[in-house]
Amino acid sequence: MAPTPVPQGAPHGADDRPVVLDRREGPHGEVVLRRHGDLLQIIANGCFLMDTSDGASERLLVRAALDELAGRQPPPAAPRLLIGGLGVGFSLAEAAADARWAGIEVVERERAVVDWHRAGPLAAHSAGALDDPRVTLVEADLLARLHESPARYDALCLDIDNGPDWTVTEDNDGLYSPAGLAACRAALREDGVLVVWSAQDSPTFPDRLRMAGFDRVRTEEVPVARGVPDVLFLASHQSASRSA
């Protein structure tokens, strides 16, 4: 899919134009942090990725995972969470604010994004979560991390692209393929849950999740101020012992 043109701001005044704060050329292309009024925006390869305008659905991404786990009988005693994508920090901040998570790992492949949170303008939005002793930051491609690490998680929350059908780079397509989703499932503990954030619905994605071995799949729409609702895809696999 061709990148969506980056919004250039309202035409009525120079003061309303976006201001580039940092621009990096990394192994996966160009990444830009810019300020537009009161908002901070991340642009990847010319495609608007996310901003700090709201974050409601990004926070719900983590809450939905915990709600799913809380409904298990019995619920996991010390749940571990893996977040794919640091972004502007809303999902990580939401997770770190909840004491029920025993461990939180966040995987981010862009060094620039990490720098913007460590000592840059995005630090306020991750709210010091990177300093939480439960949080581990891994700088890596998520799919590579899933294949290389033996770690297992109770929940895996993906907020890497604009959705499974709207990826920032072509190599991210593999994450949403049946094989990539099977790797996500393999990284989950028994009765763990995968939650995928998307800026729009994907009619074919639930079938891809089922092809990857998830037998419980559902979607939740999250209303937004303008445009189509954000969507959360929730998937889990009921173990034989639980289904008996």
Automatic annotation (TrEMBL):
UniProt keyword terms in alphabetical order: Polyamine biosynthesis
Ranges for region Disordered: 1-20
One of the protein's GO biological processes: polyamine biosynthetic process
Source organism, top-level taxon: Bacteria
TM region(s), chain numbering: none
Key word Flavoprotein present: no
Name of protein: Spermidine synthase
Lineage, highest ranks first: Bacteria, Bacillati, Actinomycetota, Actinomycetes, Kitasatosporales
